[in-house]
Write a structure and sequence with these properties.
Layout (H helix, E strand, L loop, with lengths): L3 E6 L2 E6 L19 E6 L2 E8 L4 E7 L11 E7 L8 E4 L2 E6 L2 E7 L10 E10 L5 E4 L3 E6 L3 E6 L2 E2 L4 E9 L8 E4 L4 E3 L8 E2 L1 E4 L2 E8 L6 E9 L2 E11 L6 E7 L12 E8 L5 E4 L3 E3 L3 E12 L4 E10 L5 E6 L4 E3 L3 E9 L5 E6 L2 E2 L1 E3 L2 E7 L5 E3 L1 E5 L4 E3 L3 E5 L5 E5 L4 E3 L4 E7 L5 E4 L2 E3 L1 E2 L2 E6 L4 E10 L5 E10 L5 E6 L5 E2 L3 E9 L11 E5 L2 E2 L1 E3 L2 E8 L3 E11 L4 E10 L17 E7 L15 E7 L9 E8 L3 E3 L7 E5 L5 E7 L10 E5 L5
Parallel strand pairs: 3-11, 4-12, 14-22, 30-39, 41-48, 50-57
Antiparallel strand pairs: 1-2, 3-5, 5-9, 6-7, 6-10, 8-9, 10-11, 10-12, 13-15, 15-20, 16-18, 16-21, 17-20, 19-20, 21-22, 23-24, 24-26, 25-27, 27-28, 29-31, 31-35, 32-33, 32-37, 34-35, 36-39, 37-38, 40-42, 42-46, 43-44, 43-47, 45-46, 47-48, 49-51, 51-55, 52-53, 52-56, 54-55, 56-57, 58-59, 59-63, ...
Length: 697
């Protein structure tokens, strides 16, 4: 028995038969002849690997294609999302088939426009077809591909411009395939791209698949407002709504300058040229007012200029001119020409005026005059014998006019001289007799305001003085008021000087046969007191006086009680005195100690270094040397002696840095010494050092 069944394989119908195990009969069935289907292997990825629906041409490469001619129209491409439901599917017919080598061929197609996605989506590609000889083929695998959303323009930089402006704009795209020589852009009405017509498309310069530059020219009359940008590359379209704005242009700039410039009061005294400078605010300038020269005199003359740009915008600027070319009028009314003046200062009167800009000022021989209501007054100093007076009037615009000169002569001033007392003299009585001479018998003389009668060209009178410095001034005036004067300075000193003894102290006891005496002396004079201002004697011995101090290096003492008397006399004879008493004892016969005090067994005396002199702050050239002896007069070695600065701010030192006091051990001769640096104040005897030791006089 024979069972006849069939199954579909590929695109053909093939017979399927069963042969029963019948030895007696053999049955043969014949079916229709159908070609076998060839399996093509695709490369894993399409090229390019990403594209946009309806725009991008995609290539897939496969091997094991059947031999023979394959027409693109006989090849169908199927594109579906790699993940079910992730995106719509689509199909397309091949646009080109290229043999690479052997059975390897490349199939080109355009992504179906139905593959609309909102974000990059993974897809797979498969294909099937037949050769012109009828050989069937299909892919055994798929190639991967990413489908991108539609291309767009992300930005335009800059995104605005003014009418009449030319500029370069950078276009930045998203998911675009810009291509040099193919990509064009349009920026809307009134805007030309490259060599393109205004409002149309023009070629751009591509710098990458997503970037290009466009050369824009904005028409001068372009309408103000936003425009959409459109970019096309073949069939790819990308746009940016309201991506570019034509701005409302500001008016042009215009400035006006007057030359020459006006003065600080706002006036010119020459013709003035107003020059206008026009500048674009973004739109080219179409017209600008040329320079205007104004020669007419007058105040508040307005000259206006206008700038107009290519878009019809305009702006104006103006200058206000005040022009006065006419000098003012000026004349001297007093003194009259050839007048004789008693005073060397001529009080001058005159008139001055200006009808347009008004008067600024008047000078008389270069000195400023007082001007009020068209009348000026001024004082002019005339040289001895005479001279000329000239007034110069200047108006606000700077015009000047000089008056007719007026010649005058001046009567000479009287000459007065004080013959007594002498200048810088001192006296201790008041009043003082003042004497002098004057060369004009008709003059009136006053000395410190006291009238002085004249006799034979001379005058004398008593003038009271006040304690201290006095100025005696004699003033002689002639009938015209011209004056001459003379002055001397004198000092009235009725106060005795002040004198005091600083060292030694009163009631002192010493073994020295002679002592140094110093102190202070003062007087009422301004400044310091030196030996020109006061003289000082100590027990009849003249003292050195300097900077209100005095000093005597050696005043002899007798054994027993002594009186030291100081007398000060100032330069006018006033005197003052001071004194102390002190006792000289023998070193071998010291005085008995007071109850409760130690017995004096030693004596300390000066060897050398006393009464030296040096500058302020200087170290003396010789040391201060003292000797310590016992009651028999023998030197005492290895005993401490203290040197202490008691006058001024000096320092003493013994082998180290200086200090206000220093303790020094006596040597084998009983002597101790220090170096002395003087203090910071000058004077006679003002620096002092005291040396002391235990149990000494």
């Amino acid at each position: 028995m024979l069972l006849d069944t069939t199954r579909r394989l590929g695109l053909g119908i093939f017979p399927r038969f069963l042969i029963p195990t019948l030895a007696a009969a053999i049955l043969v069935f014949y079916g229709a002849a159908v070609s076998a289907q060839t399996q093509v292997s695709l490369s894993p990825s399409a090229s390019p690997t990403a594209g946009q629906a309806g725009v991008t041409s995609i290539n897939v490469t496969g091997s094991n294609f059947p031999t023979g001619t394959i027409s693109p129209s006989q090849v169908q491409i199927s594109v579906r999302s790699a993940t079910a439901g992730a995106g719509p599917a689509g199909s397309a017919t091949a646009t080109a088939i290229t043999t690479i080598i052997g059975s390897t061929r490349r199939v080109a197609f355009t992504l179906p426009s139905s593959l609309v996605v909102t974000s990059p989506t993974s897809y797979v590609v498969s294909l099937s077809g037949t050769t012109t000889s009828g050989v069937l083929f299909a892919t055994r695998n798929t190639a991967s591909l990413t489908v991108n959303p539609p291309a767009f323009i992300a930005s335009s930089t800059p995104s605005s411009a003014l009418p009449g402006q030319s500029l370069t704009v950078v276009l930045t795209g998203g998911l675009t395939d810009f291509l040099q020589g193919s990509t064009q852009a349009s920026f809307g009405p009134g805007v030309s791209v490259g060599a393109g017509a205004a409002g149309g498309f023009g070629y751009v310069t591509v710098t990458s698949r997503t970037s290009a530059t466009a050369q824009l020219t904005i028409a001068g009359g372009a309408a103000v407002g936003a425009r959409s940008i459109a970019v096309r590359t073949g069939s790819q379209q990308a746009a940016l709504t309201n991506g570019f704005v034509v701005l409302q242009p500001p008016p042009p700039n215009i400035t006006a300058v007057a030359s020459p410039p006006r003065n600080s009061a706002g006036w010119n005294n020459t013709s003035v040229t107003a020059t206008f400078t026009c500048a674009s605010s973004g739109v080219p300038i179409a017209s600008c007012t040329p320079p205007v020269t104004v020669s007419n005199e007058g105040a508040s003359q307005v000259v206006t200029g206008t700038a107009v740009d290519a878009g019809g915008n305009s702006a104006s600027a103006a200058v206000v001119l005040n022009i006065d070319k006419t000098p003012p009028n000026v004349a001297i009314t007093s003194p009259v020409d050839d007048a004789a003046l008693f005073s060397a200062r001529a009080n001058t009167l005159g008139t001055a005026g200006d009808a347009l800009s008004g008067m600024s000022h008047v000078t008389c021989n270069g000195a400023a005059a007082v001007l009020a209501g068209g009348v000026f007054t001024c004082g002019v100093d005339i040289a001895p014998g005479g001279g000329s007076i000239v007034a110069v009037a200047t108006d606000v615009a700077g015009n000047g006019r000089t008056s007719v000169p007026v010649d005058v002569t001046v009567l000479p001033s009287p000459v007065v001289t004080i013959t007594a007392p002498e200048n810088l003299s001192f006296m201790n009585t008041s009043p003082v007799m003042v004497r002098g001479t004057v060369n004009n018998s008709s003059a009136v003389v006053n000395v410190n305001g006291i009238p002085a009668p004249l006799s034979a060209g001379g005058f004398s009178l008593l003038v009271p003085l006040t304690e201290g410095t006095n100025t005696l001034t004699a003033v002689a005036a002639n009938p015209g008021g011209n004056t001459g004067s003379a002055s001397v300075a004198v000092t009235l000193d009725t106060t005795p000087p002040h004198i005091s003894i600083d060292t030694p102290k009163g009631s002192a006891v010493t073994t020295d046969s002679a002592i140094a005496v110093s102190g202070t002396v003062n007087d009422i004079v301004v400044g310091t007191v030196n030996d020109q201002e006061a003289q000082v004697t100590v027990n009849g011995v003249s003292a050195q006086v300097a900077n209100r101090t005095y000093a005597v290096s050696s005043i002899p003492l007798a054994l027993g009680q002594n009186t030291v008397q100081v007398i000060a006399r100032d330069r006018v004879g006033n005197t003052a005195t001071d004194f102390i008493t002190m006792t000289r004892v023998s070193a071998t016969e010291p005085p008995a100690p007071a109850i409760g005090e130690a017995v004096i067994t030693r004596s300390l005396s000066i060897v050398s270094g006393n009464s030296q002199s040096a500058g302020i702050g200087a170290e003396l050239s010789a040391p201060l040397v003292v000797v310590l002896r016992d009651s028999s007069g023998s030197p005492l070695p290895n005993q401490p002696v203290v040197f202490k600065v008691t006058g001024n701010s000096g320092l003493v030192a013994s082998g180290g840095a200086g200090t206000p006091s220093a303790a020094v051990m006596t040597d084998t001769n009983g002597q101790a010494q220090v170096l002395w640096t003087l203090g910071q104040r000058s004077g006679a005897g003002i620096n002092s050092v005291r040396a002391s030791a235990a149990l000494t006089i």
